């Protein structure tokens, strides 16, 4: 096992539009190795890809085929998820452990093989097993095809900015202790910007990330929230940011001084370097508008105008309040798909499956959970706390292996109550490994309803294998009679990860045009661990071009 003491490696991708050949085969090697990392004045071993935190950026061009050979050199099982990649007919390369594949065991390797079809922009990759994605993550940058311009002013430079969380303790110890106690895990000790938190009170010597910029230039910042459990605000003192893309989908540009970005989401912004010469503070801080503990330490970085004198004081800014619901809501409501002739919003106008899923927490008996007074906090969708199987769902589906899962996931909540009001007296959930079956090419409407059980909070829900349109959103309980009348079916934002607002709901639509088994889960890792997850099984269509490809020969075995 490779191990050496290193300082956190800052990976900053600043590119002058690299020339990449269209429709090429890109090959990468990801060696999963241990490294000793020093942060917050303490050192610990972490799991990394190629010894880097954040991990290496994967560059490709739209329509490229990508081959990533992942080799596991650590004592954990490993899988990698290519978050937001459609994986058309290549579910074997999607990555979530025990959903589409069995893990890569110590000393073994697996080649993820997929083609990037009809996508361009910023996405991310991360580990999809245990809590390893706390340090095993990185950017995916998909450039447009040759000679296809961006639908916004051409930037002079591009910068990848990865936001994350850092624990002084081993994150596997953190979640294992929480599972043992039945309570929530300890929050992180810091947020990071490209691997660095900036100075903090108990470690004032801790360095921060510095972005050097030239006055008069335009920069495209590719923001990625790779944090485990926290939605984040991003802000630069004295500058407005122009939003041009989210989740690898172009949007109608708008200006803001604050970006809200949930775990698993990406946001591309244009930064116009048009202020007076100087240093400007960059802040990353948490958003939480529910009575839930979060890491309230603000990460800081510096935007440095090249040529600024060394002793020039930094121009400061105040991050939004932790519970700045209005700031968050205004940002979300400003997002609209570009919906141009070249990039239309193909929103399904008819609905074949009308689904209503509650998402929230619960309490189940746990006699050994003494800190939890004999109860364990769990999470569920439609009152079902998902149990991971020991055989991957996609393998069980493809090879017709019985007894791994059932297809009776409920289309509606099994128990009707005032979801955002007074909770029921019984807070228990059911356990099971159930999927919901969809016919190929069917139009799906899914309303995700937050609940107030234990506590209402925002759930960033991620759907694998698809992008979807967020056609509606509102507070309280969804009203199926009146709320659809207010749906935006013209230019709703298209995403792969959407925040269900605290004490509210969101409605999405997508076309089930991708055969396979596709994970739906909360991208707060603690909620995924607690069971807020399920899967869709999409049947094959007609003929081989509408059918799941056979598994690769090196697919890991359970």
Q: Secondary structure elements and their pairing?
A:
Elements: E1 5-7, E2 14-15, E3 25-39, E4 42-49, E5 58-61, E6 65-72, E7 80-83, E8 109-115, E9 121-127, E10 137-143, E11 157-166, H1 171-181, E12 190-193, E13 210-213, E14 218-225, E15 231-236, E16 241-246, E17 249-256, E18 258-261, E19 266-272, E20 279-287, E21 299-305, E22 314-315, H2 325-334, E23 353-365, E24 375-381, E25 384-386, H3 393-398, E26 430-432, E27 435-438, E28 443-450, E29 459-463, E30 468-475, E31 493-495, E32 497-500, E33 504-511, E34 516-522, H4 525-530, E35 533-538
Parallel strand pairs: 1-3, 3-6, 5-10, 11-14, 13-21, 20-22, 23-28, 25-26, 27-35
Antiparallel strand pairs: 2-11, 3-4, 6-8, 7-9, 9-10, 11-12, 14-19, 15-18, 15-20, 16-17, 16-19, 20-21, 23-24, 28-33, 29-32, 29-34, 30-31, 30-33, 34-35
Write up this protein.
It contains four helices and 35 strands. It has 558 residues and is mostly beta strands. It folds into three domains: 119 residues, Sandwich (Immunoglobulin-like), CATH 2.60.40.420; 178 residues, Immunoglobulin-like; 194 residues, Immunoglobulin-like (Sandwich), CATH 2.60.40. Strands 2, 11, 12, 14, 16, 17 and 19 form a seven-stranded mixed beta sheet that branches. Strands 13, 15, 18, 20, 21 and 22 form a six-stranded mixed beta sheet that branches. The longest helix is centred in the first third of the chain and has 11 residues. Lignin degradation and detoxification of lignin-derived products. Pfam families: Cu-oxidase (PF00394), Cu-oxidase_2 (PF07731), Cu-oxidase_3 (PF07732). It comes from Gossypium lobatum. This is Laccase.
